[in-house]
Amino acid sequence: MNTIKKCLFPAAGYGTRFLPATKAIPKEMLPVLTKPLLQYGVEEAIEAGLNTMAIVTGRGKRAIEDHFDISYELEHQIKDTAKESYLTEIRKVITNCTFSYTRQIEMKGLGHAILTGETLIGEEPFAVILADDLCDNEGDGVLAQMVKLYNEYKCCIVAVEEIAKEESSKYGVIAGDFLNNSLVKVTDMVEKPDPKDAPSNIAIIGRYILTPEIFDVLRETKPGKGGEIQITDALLELAKDGKVLAYKFQGKRFDCGSVDGFVEATQYFYNKLS
To answer: Which of 58, 104, 169, 243 has the maximal Cβ count within 10 Å?
Structure first.
């Protein structure tokens, strides 16, 4: 039985690396082919058995709410035409999910964004997807893989992959004890360390499963790297009690928070069509 039903999407960031495009358009709504990044994430959550999407937004993000809603005028204009099929996927998403929203008033880091979403999550385990990290897999999606693990271990799980050591300053980096080839019991986590200080070359990507106790820990977490409340600092507190696993997922991940990664993802998904 799937015990996780809610997925939190932190979506309040400014997307400064894509300016001027993101001056008026949320970065989560930038399209890879004909579908915005956030929709890919929502569809991954649906595939994992989740049906309640909790989105933490900010100023200038109304396009997100409008996208996951019915557009009566548009649907009337294309009704009974060949273009009506273009809306099939998004209609399915809207029909099968419940969406709720809250605003992050100040940008104080990912940990603060997740804490802001507490009002939408409540006292239950939940998933977190960062839409910037676009993942694809021929089998189960990354989140579906993680939900299966949660149902077995009942603890926090972060998705990880190996990176070049010189890129460690872009990621949260973990260290720990391997339980098998793909699962690590986390003993250390460092946010964006210098390569010389990185505890390993295993980096966290934008997929998490968190237990509700994370909210209490986040409330007590002091600002860390960059003056922000870091989710890695909060997870490290839980890891001290053996409550955090890192999972080397099956699949391909694109860093769509960077222009290079966004172009790579666009080419990849375009090639899949041919």
So the answer is: 104
